[in-house]
Amino acid sequence: MEVSSNGQRSIYCLRHLNPKIFKCLATLLVLLIFRVILFPTISSFGRIEENGLVVVRNLSPLYGSDFGIRVDKFLEVPQIVWGLNNQKIAFARACLTARMLNRTLLMPSLSASLFYKEVERLEPISFDKIFRFEEFNSRCNGFVRLGRYMNISNRTKPIELSKGSGRKWTIERDLEQLEEYSKEPFDQSEVIRIVGKNPFLWHDHWPVKDYAKVFECLVLVDEIEKEVDKVISRIREVGSKVRSKFDSDGTVVQSENLLQPVPYVAVHMRIEIDWMIHCKKLEQRSKINQICSSKEEIMNRVGNILGMKMPAVVYLAVADSLLNDSSILKGWKEGLLPFEKKKLGIDKIYKKYPYLIQSAIDYEVCLRADVFVGNSFSTFSSLVVLGRTQKLMKTGVVDLCDTNLSWPSYAYNILGDSNGPRKWISNMSDTNLKNISYGSNDTSCGKSPR
Ligand SMILES: *[C@@H]1O[C@H](CO)[C@@H](O)[C@H](O)[C@H]1NC(C)=O
Ligand SMILES: *[C@@H]1O[C@H](CO)[C@@H](O)[C@H](O)[C@H]1NC(C)=O
Ligand SMILES: *[C@@H]1O[C@H](CO)[C@@H](O)[C@H](O)[C@H]1NC(C)=O
Ligand SMILES: *[C@@H]1O[C@H](CO)[C@@H](O)[C@H](O)[C@H]1NC(C)=O
Ligand SMILES: *[C@@H]1O[C@H](CO)[C@@H](O)[C@H](O)[C@H]1NC(C)=O
Ligand SMILES: *[C@@H]1O[C@H](CO)[C@@H](O)[C@H](O)[C@H]1NC(C)=O
Ligand SMILES: *[C@@H]1O[C@H](CO)[C@@H](O)[C@H](O)[C@H]1NC(C)=O
Ligand SMILES: *[C@@H]1O[C@H](CO)[C@@H](O)[C@H](O)[C@H]1NC(C)=O
């Protein structure tokens, strides 16, 4: 409403170049300033200059059909499977495919459990059991859109789009196919159903920033969010106990420090046997010998992080198979106090849920940690760092590799300054998600602080 009256006013100004012009212009200016303040990211007005007079035109609605995705055309995709990261990437890829076809994505099924290969045993779980549906659409408004099956009118039969496979099915052919399906005669069909492989296996056509936009719209449902809060407050609680213990031990704690919560460092420690086998193979194949880190190397490097405030709680995000391995709790530098789910007494929280939700909680705990240390060849770690980089960019910092920033992230498998782990941010201007998420020894931050 505001916008259209704004538009009318500008037309009024144009037509009536009379002595009242100053008043009119002033009003317009005030309205403009308001708009810029209220909606700084949306530049929906074009400016034309006529006789030196700046005229605002084309004031399209902020949200709605002009920018939006069609609400009456849908894309249906196969069930999304495998690990949390695979599912998030696959989901974003499905969204971006729907965007390219200018269609609403029918809310896909995710998978609660993790059975590789045996797709028929994958327990489907609705997207909105994990992430907030309305919140997704409101955050991603104008970019991508989710819809529900009940909103299909079923007037026409869905058109099936079968993605090719094999060596001959190149990224170019895949793109051509999508372009073909965004034109007549397919464009008018109410539903296009993609059949075949899960979206994680489709060819990728989008830059990192598009994926990041979709990820930003994913907000956990309240129930899971509450569990995340419980886990984090338990970690903080342990931290404050640690501090009072340190105080009574006579350790000098500066009074300003007393007011701040004890920081927690989340370490995504990948040392379980499955990973070790995988990473050794990867090292051979890629001829990079910085992929596997031993327990000792991880502990050492985390202990050498410059400027780390002590004491600090170290939250070990580890695979379940390591929860009974007490050796991961020993050998940390003094002042670093390691905890895993069991020692924190929060394994009960996790046990209530299937794999996917457990993983989503751990992701969030790592995302919100004061410091995060992960493996740059792990997709989980990479997506955490992507989320943290976005968070950092929101604060307006320019040099994301500055060693003094809050929420730093590091890769323990790459040597950084002072024998510590290498500072790590995601390159948001990368043209390909694969470059930053499927494993790389490039952490976008040089050896010495820049
Ligand atoms: C989608 O279609 C609507 C309505 O036809 C159009 O206004 C909008 O620009 C299109 N969006 C994209 C991303 O192509
Ligand atoms: C259209 O079909 C879907 C199932 O494919 C169903 O959920 C939906 O309710 C149907 N819509 C109408 C309007 O009948
Ligand atoms: C989808 O269907 C529901 C229930 O009929 C309705 O409340 C909602 O407005 C519909 N949404 C759209 C975008 O058509
Ligand atoms: C990454 O690996 C390549 C190949 O082994 C090597 O040349 C390069 O120096 C490594 N980069 C870093 C940051 O260590
Ligand atoms: C850890 O040990 C306990 C008892 O020894 C056992 O019940 C539990 O299943 C084990 N957990 C894992 C993840 O191995
Ligand atoms: C970080 O902060 C410390 C002390 O506040 C300062 O000495 C140092 O120069 C800073 N480093 C950078 C890279 O800004
Ligand atoms: C980020 O990616 C862009 C595009 O690939 C590249 O030009 C740039 O050098 C990269 N930046 C860093 C810091 O690696
Ligand atoms: C990122 O991926 C693109 C496309 O696959 C490639 O051309 C580019 O060289 C890659 N950039 C880096 C830094 O690896």
UniProtKB/TrEMBL annotation:
Q: Listed GO molecular functions?
A: glycosyltransferase activity
GO BP term, example: fucose metabolic process
Q: Which UniProt keywords apply?
A: Carbohydrate metabolism, Fucose metabolism, Glycosyltransferase, Membrane, Transferase, Transmembrane, Transmembrane helix
Matching InterPro entries: AtOFT1-like, GDP-Fuc_O-FucTrfase
Q: Does the keyword S-adenosyl-L-methionine apply?
A: no
The keyword Acyltransferase appears for this protein? no
Q: Which residues cross the membrane?
A: 21-42
Q: Name one Pfam family in it.
A: O-FucT
Can you name this protein? O-fucosyltransferase family protein
Naturally occurring in which organism (per UniProt): Cucumis melo var. makuwa
